[in-house]
Design a protein that fits this description.
5-stranded mixed β-sheet, 490 residues, rod-shaped, mainly beta
Length: 490
């Protein structure tokens, strides 16, 4: 073993041993974080410098020996540098022993009196006075576990964000943050958070798209975490577009009091629905409406995405419920009538504010325009008027009538003799018309008057008289050759 100094003095050629001092101390100037302990039996040096708030520029004095003389002249001391687990986990490593400045009891670690740094963990020397030396620990890495504990949801409509982060392995770390914005706008690292407030907030994130927040820890020596923590999320403030399918067409008239709509959106989420002036409420697709009143209705729907963004312009559909049938009244030809003509011009009345089509049909022919009718055959016929409103409500009125252009024949079956003294006369008559005929009678130059069989005339004057009788059928056809009887009252 080589000693730093032997503590021997020479005077006048005689070797003397220096007397023991009353007390000596040893001071180690510890730079950084680590431990130094004495491995010899005295074990007077046992110093552990905590890594808390330490950098490579930090210095702490570890002193062994006291005024009570714990170190005596000639003691052999071996000091050992070490890195306790806590400091090791924070990146601290033993670097070197360095001699103190010349004078003032500097220690030269073995080998003795050799200048320069020593890179062995042990430093061995002999006590001959109060001594000092320097012990350096190197901070070789920054925190390696920077993490983000809280941040915004992966997709959000919020235009602000707050992050909480930490570096558990190095609680003394400070932090640098950067924010990359949509559109390729990359941020730069800047100090963020604090020793006790390990958070960072951002506002006015109005650009829609993907954001990435990055944070890295920096220890007191300036070492950075080479694997920064990141948090990526998307800001979405764009509302979805709403669509409506099914149901009545816009501006249409429908006869049904119910409607079913299919609700659509460009994004998944939910819907709000409103019918007429009622309040808007949550709804799902398909949306079934029932019990609708007569009149105009408007249905509105707003799509809302999962972030709460709501379409500002609802999808809208307006339509009119009309379940009332139109009314149709046919005047010509009258129902059950007999007509003496093979044609006619129809007259009818349709009552409905929204009627869009009126068509007519004779007998079993197809419905068509309601113009004049001609060329009808003898016998029974039907005439129909059909009205259809804009809602599709349909009413058809059908009248039955008979075409009869054949004139009836009249026959007298009883009448007075050609000469008579009676001043009254009775006539009986009939017609070839099987049913429904009526008769008119005329006496001399008098007017035609309605009559029935038998017809009796009384208080007639003496002289010549003529009675005419004609039949009129239900179609109004008159016998063109009335039955006639002329006689004389004497």
């Amino acid at each position: 073993m080589r000693l730093v100094r032997l503590g021997l003095l020479f005077a006048f050629g005689v070797l003397f041993v220096a007397p023991a001092a009353s007390a000596y101390t040893v001071t180690v100037h510890v730079h950084g974080a680590g431990a130094v302990t004495e491995t010899t039996a005295r074990n007077l040096m046992n110093c552990d410098v905590s890594p808390n708030l330490r950098s490579e520029a930090s210095s702490t004095d570890c002193v062994a020996g006291t005024a009570a003389g714990l170190y005596a002249f000639g003691d052999i001391v071996n000091l050992r540098a070490s890195v306790p687990t806590e400091a090791f986990n924070r990146g601290w490593r033993f670097l070197k022993w360095v001699d103190s400045a010349a004078g003032g009891g500097q220690i030269n670690c073995d080998p003795q009196d050799q200048a320069g740094d020593r890179f062995n963990v042990d430093c061995q020397f002999q006590i001959f006075e109060t001594l000092q030396t320097n012990l350096y620990f190197d901070d070789v890495e920054g925190p390696q576990d920077t993490s983000i504990s809280t941040g915004p949801s992966s997709r959000t409509a919020s235009t602000s964000a707050t992050f909480n982060f930490n570096a558990a392995s190095d609680p003394d770390s400070t932090f640098e943050c950067k924010l990359d914005r949509p559109g390729g706008f990359f941020g730069s690292y800047a100090l963020c958070g604090g020793l006790f407030d390990k958070s960072e907030s951002y506002g006015s994130l109005t650009a829609n798209g993907s954001y990435t927040f990055t944070v890295r820890g920096r220890d007191a020596s300036g070492n950075l975490d080479l694997s920064p923590a990141t948090w990526t999320w998307t800001v979405d403030t764009v509302p979805p577009d709403t669509s409506l399918g099914g149901g009545p067409a816009e501006g249409s008239f429908v006869a049904t009091t119910s409607a079913t709509f299919t609700l659509g959106s460009t994004e998944s989420g939910s819907f709000l629905c409103q019918l007429d002036s009622a309040g808007a409420a949550s709804c799902t697709s398909p949306r079934n409406l029932s019990g609708l009143s007569e009149g105009l209705h408007t249905f509105r729907v707003w799509a809302r995405d999962g972030l709460g963004n709501q379409d500002l312009t609802p999808a809208t559909r307006s339509w009119t419920v009309d379940s009332v049938m139109p009314t149709v009244s046919v005047a010509t030809p009258a129902n059950g009538s007999f007509r003496a003509s093979t044609g006619f011009t129809p007259t009818y009345t349709v009552t409905d504010a929204t009627t869009t089509a009126v068509t007519c049909a004779v007998d079993a022919l197809a419905f068509g325009p309601c113009g004049a009718v001609s060329g009808l055959s003898q016998g029974g016929h039907t005439f129909s008027v059909k009205a259809v409103d804009r809602a599709g409500n349909t009413t058809t009125q059908t009248n039955s009538f008979t075409v009869d252009t054949v004139k009836p024949n009249t026959k007298l079956t009883a009448f007075p003799p050609l000469r008579t003294t009676s001043r009254s006369a009775t006539f009986r008559f009939k017609s070839t018309e099987p049913t429904g005929a009526r008769f008119q009678c005329k006496l001399d130059a008098g007017a035609w008057k309605t009559c029935t069989s038998p017809k009796t005339y009384r208080s007639l004057r003496r002289g010549l008289h003529t009675v005419k009788v004609r039949a009129i059928d239900r179609a109004g056809n008159k016998d063109p050759t009335p039955a006639t009887r002329t006689w004389r009252i004497t």
